[in-house]
């Protein structure tokens, strides 16, 4: 008996919860569980034992989940963060939580969920995102969660569920989208959910058209327990007005119609100058009113959608070479998809330079146009592309200026060639004293200069007269008397050739 009593005492002590030596301040720790709820803490506490499998952090003031907050906790199975103020999750924050089975983020301030947010959670079974501020679920948001069985997205502000938003959720059995702002739900959105058993979509402002008609037919035909009879009656129509306040089951099948979109775009090709702004309207019609987006090289371009006019406005300010290329305007509604292509070219030359020398109608012959369809050119950065384009433009401008200079010199040379030696300046006037009775040539002249540097040519009688060609300068009447002569000419003056 004396041996049993200490053993029983030790057993009782072992069953009593004891705080762990590594337990964070203010928290309570039991075996592999840490409780830190309702403490007013603003961040995930440090010092949580690395072997912990369950953490309760609900009803606090945590605002973000950082990359380093959970790195040491690779054994976590359950993480409860509901009713905090979390608005940001760093990409890769859950990379170390490969064993996590349940994640509760409901009742926070999350407004955007991205594919990188849940990376590493390949064993996750249940994900709570209800009661946040999510407005849109993008394509492939839940990729990698192939074992997820329950996804709770109720009580958000979701207006659009992208076509591939739920791709990869092949094990999902329950999807709750109730109490959102969904207006339509396409067949392609639910197609990846091959294991779906329960679908909750009540209390949304549904547009009762062909999309919900498909949903009703699909439920009826497949006999799946996606919506109970009570839930089907709670599926109320908000529009069109003629079907407003009717439940989906009360609407006749021929009333659930859609008109596929039709897209118009003018012009389909456009050339703009570097630095200019651009505005292109993509007109779309159909029922329901199509949603319009612009895409370029697989990236969505910021566009303004006007639901009244059915126009998607593409705005580009301060156009650079990087903007050149092929754009695609896409209009979508539950009835189908329509696309149209727009080509943008960027003119790199500056009109302020070219217009000084050439009429505007001719400038395009010297201005390079870029459409950026080349893989080599598009692979460069915008700054490099712009520098290359500016360099090419400067070379083209230099060539134009060189041609203009050559042309101007050529015209001047032709004028000088057609003129006379007699139009030279006074400093270049040649005075020729002719002592012969016949014509002379320059080969018969010898040079003589006066004190002012004026040239004086006197006939050299020692050289024979070559030919009988006459002087290029006309004969002048009168006599020439040069001032400042080193030696006076005493012979009677004779007629002079004045050049």
UniProtKB/TrEMBL annotation:
Leader sequence segment: 1-22
SMART domains per record: IG (SM00409), IGc2 (SM00408), LRR_TYP (SM00369), LRRCT (SM00082), LRRNT (SM00013)
The entry's keywords: Disulfide bond, Leucine-rich repeat, Membrane, Repeat, Signal, Transmembrane, Transmembrane helix
UniProt-listed PROSITE patterns: IG_LIKE (PS50835), LRR (PS51450)
Keyword Endoplasmic reticulum: no
Transmembrane feature ranges: 387-407
PANTHER family registered for this protein in UniProt: IG(IMMUNOGLOBULIN) AND LRR(LEUCINE RICH REPEAT) DOMAINS, LEUCINE RICH REPEAT CONTAINING 24
Name this protein carries in UniProt: Leucine rich repeat containing 24
């Amino acid at each position: 008996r004396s041996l049993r009593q200490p053993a029983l005492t030790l057993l009782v002590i072992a069953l009593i919860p004891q705080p762990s030596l590594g337990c964070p301040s203010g928290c309570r720790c039991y075996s592999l569980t840490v409780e830190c709820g309702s403490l007013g803490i603003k961040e995930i506490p440090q010092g949580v034992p690395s072997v912990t499998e369950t953490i309760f952090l609900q009803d606090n003031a945590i605002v973000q989940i950082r990359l380093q907050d959970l790195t040491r906790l690779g054994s976590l199975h359950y993480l409860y963060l509901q009713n905090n103020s979390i608005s940001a999750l760093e990409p890769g924050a859950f990379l170390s939580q490969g064993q996590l089975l349940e994640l509760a983020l409901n009742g926070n301030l999350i407004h955007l969920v991205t594919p990188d947010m849940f990376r590493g959670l390949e064993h996750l079974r249940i994900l709570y995102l209800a009661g946040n501020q999510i407005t849109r679920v993008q394509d492939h948001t839940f990729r990698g969660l192939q074992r997820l069985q329950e996804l709770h997205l109720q009580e958000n502000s979701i207006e659009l569920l992208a076509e591939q938003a739920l791709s990869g959720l092949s094990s999902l059995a329950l999807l709750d989208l109730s109490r959102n702002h969904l207006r339509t739900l396409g067949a392609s959105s639910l197609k990846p959910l091959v294991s779906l058993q329960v679908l909750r979509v009540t209390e949304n402002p549904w547009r009762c058209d062909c999309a919900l008609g498909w949903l009703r037919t699909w439920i009826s035909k497949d006999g799946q327990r996606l919506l109970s009879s009570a839930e089907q009656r709670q599926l109320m129509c908000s529009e069109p007005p003629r079907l407003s306040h009717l439940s989906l089951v009360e609407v006749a099948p021929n009333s659930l119609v859609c008109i596929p979109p039709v897209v118009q775009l003018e012009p389909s090709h456009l050339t703009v100058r570097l630095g200019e702004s651009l505005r292109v309207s993509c007109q779309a019609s159909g029922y329901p009113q199509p949603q319009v987006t612009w895409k370029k090289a697989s990236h969505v371009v910021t566009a303004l959608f006007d639901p009244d006019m059915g126009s998607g406005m593409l705005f580009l300010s301060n156009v650079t070479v990087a903007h050149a290329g092929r754009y695609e305007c896409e209009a979508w509604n539950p009835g189908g998809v329509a696309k149209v292509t727009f080509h943008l070219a960027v003119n790199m030359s500056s009109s302020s330079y070219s217009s000084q020398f050439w009429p505007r109608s001719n400038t395009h012959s010297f201005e390079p146009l870029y459409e950026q369809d080349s893989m080599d050119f598009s692979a460069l950065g915008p700054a490099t592309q712009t520098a290359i384009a500016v360099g090419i433009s400067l070379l083209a401008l230099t060539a134009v200026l060189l041609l203009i200079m050559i042309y101007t010199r050529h015209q001047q040379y032709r004028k000088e060639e057609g003129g006379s030696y007699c139009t030279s300046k006074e400093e270049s006037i040649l005075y020729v004293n002719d002592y012969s009775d016949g014509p002379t040539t320059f080969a018969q002249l010898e040079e003589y200069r006066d004190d002012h540097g004026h040239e004086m040519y006197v006939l050299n009688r020692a050289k024979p007269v070559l030919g009988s060609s006459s002087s290029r300068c006309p004969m002048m009447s009168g006599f020439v008397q040069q001032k400042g002569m080193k030696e006076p000419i005493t012979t009677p003056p004779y007629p002079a050739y004045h050049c």
